[in-house]
Amino acid sequence: MQWTKPGCKHLNSASMHLEEFVTAMTEAYNAGSRVVRLHTGDPALYGAIAEQIAALKKQDVPFQVFPGVTAAFAASASMGIEYTLPEVTQTLILTRMAGRTPVPEAEALTSLAKHQASMSIYLSISMIDKVTEILKEAYGENAPAAVAYCVSQPEEQIFRTTVRELPAVVEREKIRKTALIIVGHALDPARQGETRKSKLYDKNFSHEYRQKA
Q1: What DSSP assignment string belongs to 67-113?
Q2: pLDDT of 194 higher than 70
Q3: pLDDT for the residue 52
Q4: Element of type H or E holding 170
Q5: Distance between CA 119 and CA 117 in Å, rounded?
Q6: For the chain, how long is the longest CA-to-CA vector?
Q7: CA nearest 39: which of 27, 29, 47?
Q8: pLDDT at position 190
Q9: Distance from C-alpha of 151 to C-alpha of 207, rounded to nearest angstrom
C-alpha cells in the first residue's frame, strides 16, 4: 500500500462484513474510481473471493483477479526447499483443520495425512496439539516439520523441528495466529541433496527439446 497515490482512500476490511465492503467498492466504481481489493497471500486459497465475485457480478461491476503468493510457497522459498522430490513425494496437500469453518468429511486431516505427502496446514495453529497427534500417527513423531510465522512479512520466522516438538515450538514462541504448519519427508535436508535427481535435467533423458547426450 506504500505505492498508492496521494489522496487514495484506504479502507481496512478487518472490521467490515461482506455487504459493507462490496457496497464501498461498488459505489467507488460507479463514481469512476479505480478500486483495488488487496488480499494477503493468494486470494484463491482461503481468500473467500467466490462470495465477493458473486456479489460484484450481481452489481454488474467488472473485475480482474491477480494471483499472489500463498504462504506455503513463500515458506518453501525462505527455507530453500522443494516440496516435490523425485522418489520421495510428488504431491503437495494444502489443507486446514475443521474449526468454525467446517471441512468435508472426506478431506479430514486424518485421511489426507495418510498419504504422507508434503503438507501445508493453514488456519490450524490454535489446534496444534490435535494436529500433532494426527501427524504423529501418519508421519511418525520424528518426521521433519516446520512452523512458518508471518511468512514473507518483515517479522517472518521459520522454525524447523519435528512433528513431536511442534507443540513445544508453538508454546515457546507464543505463536497464536498467522502461522503455517508444514510437514513431510521432503523437509529433510538430506533428501534435498543430489541423491535423487529429476529426469528433467538428466543428460540421458531425451525429450522434444533435447536429445540424449
Answers
A1: ----HHHHHHHHHT--S--TTT-S-EEEEE--SSS---GGG-HHHHH
A2: no
A3: 96
A4: helix 166-172
A5: 6
A6: 63
A7: 47
A8: 81
A9: 37
